[in-house]
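User: If you would, consider this record:
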Amino acid sequence: MRMRRQSECHIVGGATRASGANPLESLVNKAQMNGMGIALRRISQPCRRFLSTVSTLSDESTALSKMMPSENFVKQFIKRPSHRDKLSSLVSELDMFLDLFGKDSLPAFDDSLWTTYFQTWSAEERCEFLNDLRQEQKKANTPAPVPEGEKASESISLINQRREENGEMVYAPGFHSLLELRGQEFREVIDNMYGSRLLSMRRCDENLPKLVVDCRFLSEFSVAVQSTFARQIQALHDGNWTSRQPFDISLANFRPDSQLAKIVKRHWFFHYGPPSAGTSFSPHAFAPTLTTKSVVDACSVDRSDVMYISWRARQFLPEDAPPNIRAVVLCASNDYQPWSSSVSAAQKDGITAYRIPVERHIRFEGHSKVLPLSTTSSILRYYFRGEDLGSAIRKSVFLPAKNSRLSEKEEREVFERYKAVVQEAIARAESHSTHKRTKKPSDMPKKPKVHRYSREERRRMRAMETSSRDLSSSS
């Protein structure tokens, strides 16, 4: 039976509340009470029954019921006792994460998420992966802002319904509309508009420079960073898909391993289609192209006509767009480490690197100065259309409100504490197992020696051998 928790840590609206202890003490107490002094606690008894019989969980673990792997996953991946132990630890980490950030802080885990989570061996990467999923779920659950002066109950549909009941002519979806498009039909119309805009720009020789995303470092990043850039590239296509002047986008140096392939298949709807489409999906003819070619080969122009955008470059973008530029390269990297530097990537390809002077026009005040790919492409679209660079930056960059920064900071602090406890628990478990393996033979209990023959049988055998030797010597 699980021990009753002495204190719990809750996140309510981004703020941390603890009953009887601060978040760190509550976290440590939870870890110690559940057996994390040496290792993360083993999965609870209902979860053990699940692993052996793949049955449903009891009401005590309802928060974990939506996170449990399927029977097919267990049959495919849980084949050894070490696999069972690892799955127990992973479910314990999930349970602890849900206790801290809320039972609805993570999406329901399907086999695709479980495969990525189970095959991530680093504890730090697993923690970052969970936090990345939490932030994605938080954005999905954030309601749209209600206009000022309008009550939440007074939605547009209710207002239109009231107007129709009063005998007024209402022009809106579901009432009277000349053309009503929804779902897949709406996406097909946007697909046609997207293709026609690209073709008309080519026919009129009004093309924007080709936009190339350099993915050479993508397979080397952690699962969380890979998921972040996978979503950024999908958002890049979404913004380009509905733009009046779209870019021709290519993804160069894309050489995914098995882990990255599963992540992009989950996020890149423009190439693989939504999960509901199944095998009937076919990508758009002008969707972003995935290629293993180098950046220069993907640009298909001379190096002198290519511009590489880097947030670490020393040379700023000129105020007016150079007329010779035929391709622009964005790097899928945060430039946090020297090995993933976009400047070094540009130098290796012999391309001049430029930096967008965002600091001249935007005050960040603690925010990251590395902008998402979709925001960068929006700045470049205005820039190559001939607009002022400062105006392009101000139109494209949107920083979160000041009151949201405090909650994000507090959530990050709680997450860092959670990650520290998980890493410490796993380190103690590894040191404990190493100590057990390196025990001296003298410290190990001796096994009882079992003779093949009894004492009397051995004496008779020795007497027979002695008598046979005496007979042979006398003869």
